[in-house]
Write the structure tokens for this entry.
Amino acid sequence: MKVINLFTSSILVTLLMLTIPIMMTSTTLYTNKLYPQYVKTTTSYAFMISLIPMMMFLYSGQDTMISNWHWITIQTMKLSLSFKLDYFSMIFVPVALFVTWSIMEFSMWYMHSDPYINRFFKYLLLFLITMMILVTANNMFQLFIGWEGVGIMSFLLIGWWYGRTDANTAALQAILYNRIGDVGFILAMAWFLANLNTWDLQQIFMTNHKNLSIPLTGLLLAATGKSAQFGLHPWLPSAMEGPTPVSALLHSSTMVVAGVFLLIRFHPLMEHNKTMQTITLCLGAITTLFTAICALTQNDIKKIIAFSTSSQLGLMIVTIGINQPYLAFLHICTHAFFKAMLFMCSGSIIHSLNDEQDVRKMGGLFKALPFTTTSLIVGSLALTGMPFLTGFYSKDLIIETANTSYTNAWALLMTLVATSMTAAYSTRILFFALLGQPRFNPTITINESNPLLINSIKRLLFGSIFAGFLISYNITPTTTPQVTMPHYLKTMALTVTVLGFILALELNLTTQNLKFKYPSNLFKFSNMLGYFPTTIHRLMPKANLLMSQKSASTLLDMIWLEKILPKSVSHFQVKSSIIITSQKGLIKLYFLSFMLTLALSLLMLNFHE
Amino acid sequence: MLKIIMPTMMLIPLTWLSKHNMIWINTTAYSMLISLISLMYLNQLPDNNLNLSPLFFVDSLSTPLLMLTTWLLPLMLMASQHHLSKETLTRKKLYITMLVTLQLLLIMTFTATELIMFYILFEATLMPTLIIITRWGNQTERLNAGLYFLFYTLVGSLPLLIALLWLQNNLGTLNLLVIQYWAQPLPNSWSNMLLWLACMMAFMVKMPLYGLHLWLPKAHVEAPIAGSMVLAAVLLKLGGYGMMRITVLLNPLTNHMAYPFMMLSLWGMIMTSSICLRQTDLKSLIAYSSVSHMALVIMAVLIQSPWSYAGATALMVAHGLTSSLLFCLANSNYERIHSRTMILARGLQMLLPLMATWWLLASLTNLALPPTINLVGELFVVMSSFSWSNITIILMGVNITITALYSLYMLITTQRGKLTHHIKNIKPSFTRENSLMVLHLLPLLLLSLNPKIILGPIY
């Protein structure tokens, strides 16, 4: 029994520890210069402590549920604060804490000149707490608290430089797309309440309801919004307006995988619903291909990495679509390491080049920034799934499983093309930023020797190399792995990746000095992000705002409703009072009638007798 | 009940006998103490309501609203200090007297046992409100606003008087505690439909229902700050409260009659939220957002399920505090910029960082961030409407999205962006203002910890 107590108490210590710096904001510590250091250290301690329950979980493999503080009971439904400590949360909590720890250290370097750096750290920590709530929640309401919390924190962090219009627009855009997803979440909550009368995850999974299409659609919509799947994807590249640590933490490794995480949480419902699986698969495949295409021609280094995040998220959704939630989860964990590192490397480059984000204006950084570029190469290779780096352990497995399953061949083909493109755009970053001659301003002083920067990237670098091996070696296999397969299926992932590398390298070399006579349509499609923002972000808001101005506000409220009730009432009152009243101002007529009556009465009086 | 009514009455002599530098402090402190008394009624017995006297009673539906009313008076007094600083002493005292009278009437309205007494008090609240709007409003349009306010409400509620008299004649009583056991089912006939309409229209206008809402933006915009606060926070809730009380009498006719009104509310909440997107006037935006939120309450009351009643009650209290807070914030802007136009107050986060925090929290509660009681209310309403008809989720979803949009649009326009030159020499925010915002937010946060106490009679 003692083992269990250590398990729950240490995870609670981990969670409670994170709230201490938030509570400290009312003390003088918050005004102190050391606050960022304090927050970072707290996070690192939380990570260390969270390793204890993770190890215990790996050892014993038992799910636990902590249920405390009864919040409210409505009718027959009980809501209480409860934490679900199962495979997913136990593995993800240390991963998220580790990544956050590194990113916080990185932010101490990246944001050191910001006057509100303490507030920035508080926001990062608040975000981390809401993410922890999301991951460990055991009922849908608590999950929703975390779900909305990460959305709002992302709004605040994207809009960190609030003086800039772009940052504000991007923040609003993120909230809008997330909110559309939230409607799906609320739909699912409403359905579960109406039909199953519970929000507790165990109880939901226990009930065998025949037709789960409606709540699953809701959950898929929610995941689409949060994880930037096709249709609701444009907010993710726009979110790059935020500071780079924010992009590294929220928009690559933690918040954006919340949608995938939600689908993984609810996979017991999904695994028997073939229709939803097919929809999920197709959605993921479209996303991964489309965003990979968009990434190919971007010039902003952060945008390329953002689109690659989107593409990887699509891959995770594909994995859920082929009914492999555990693989998708593995990919979430491995992806966190190298994607966060890629963003940090790009942050280091951007900072060194005096806020230059355009890859065309970089070049030759291999000599100037040896450490950063080494990490960038390792990260890119891990992302493309080079054998025995972190990405390999999840990505290769996903492609293999998709190859050997009875899946939609069309979706599989799209995923493979996207995999190949991953290599292509990674090459493009490396080619333009690292190789060739420097194309940046010579007066720039490049410096990457700050220990805060080096240590944080180094930590994630080790993660990018070893984490995949460690995680996949230590966890028990949850689904039966495919033991044998033809060698062409086994090597397919690797082949397409290498193909992508070679093709991109050749293309880059041949076309480096050539100019387009006219931009090709394919290039335009990719560079304009599939014309998606230009149409959707222009036409729909315009129609909507025009409708609200013209019909809702002016036509209905200011004209018709005003006319039908108050104006018409007063109008009829005035009219009828005019008709009824005897006074019309016709003096001549009055006098004439007066005279006539007088004359008539005199006359009648005269002839009376 | 006298425990609350008598002290509230004694606020009037306190006002008139206070020294000129003490009138605000005395009244605020005293009314705050009164609001603490009302917290006692939170301790409701599980099955029965507290019959305090033949005339007054409180149950778990009226207690939250009673608390809200008493809580709001000190806040109104705190908020109006700057607005009245140029007035003479007598006028200040008169103004406070008006607010106190309004509070007195509202307390009695929410606790009245007899429906007819409820009706009389309901009408009586119009008078102090009308005086506050038309005497202390800022522009000439206040007269027109007062006219709209008075006539919409009066025309809506006069049929209710006739209906109540008829009901008294037929049932023999209008005691709220008795009629829930005594009410006869209303068969479906033309005259009964008219009766239903007569009973509901008064409250629909007060809520207000979309289409009958024109008085609300006008009154809100033109009223002085305390008027806007009490209108948004309490007077609108009279409508919801009345509807929930009177629907007992109107079953089962409500099942048929509710359809057009539910359609109107569903349609209207989207319409009014989209109007919010195009508002340039800060107060008008908040007023329209009230209409949109109240449409949810109308939906919930008309669905008449336990969950929807719980949602409606929670949403009324939550919206009361939130909209009042938003009006206070808008007013603190107005006192500095001297204009309600949003575009003239940009980038205020730079100058007033603490105020920006209040703005942020207010916007977040307005868009129903979990786990605030706003979300509890909205979620329950969405759920009950979903189980009533699945399609409504589409309209509800659109409304949820637009609500988030305009709340954050308001936040971004006023707080974010670059500072304009003409507001660089504005006053810093006063402790009075900051504590005013905190006193709005504190109950919101505390109630989120235990929403059970505001979920109404059948949670």
